[in-house]
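Sequence decides. Consider this:

===
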Amino acid sequence: MNYNNSKLSLPKSIAKIALSPIPVVGSAVAEIIGYFDDKYIENRLLQLENKLIKLEILDDFIEQIKCLEEHQYFSFRNNLKFLLTSALPETVDVFILSLIDSITSETQNMAEEVCEVLRQLNANDITTLRLLCKHFEKSEINANER
């Protein structure tokens, strides 16, 4: 693919995504568009949108984003940029759920904390967490068998 065509195709692709007209989303995407591979940015935006559609909360999510107070606005914007540009592939699904919770949940602060923790993880941390989850699951199964 021609580099110049790639940079022109991303805005066209993103324009089709329901979240793109929201100022905080559009500004975050515009800021990073020249620096990162468009296929990953578009894919992650689509993953976020598809999760919102699957949860049947897309319209509510959009309305809640439009009403964010200053702290929530910048927290969401920073976490969205991180999701689009820096989140390890292993954390994307969990990060998307945490990002959604940071807007829609009664415990928005905890969801924001989860996003901050996920931002600090490396691949070894993720492997360790998965191993811990397996051990917790096994211990619960063993406890239920007693």
Summary: Residues 1-8 have pLDDT under 50 and may be disordered. Helices lie at 3-15, 23-32, 38-54, 58-66, 70-85, 92-104, 108-119, 123-145. Residues 48 and 96 are 6 Å apart (CA to CA).
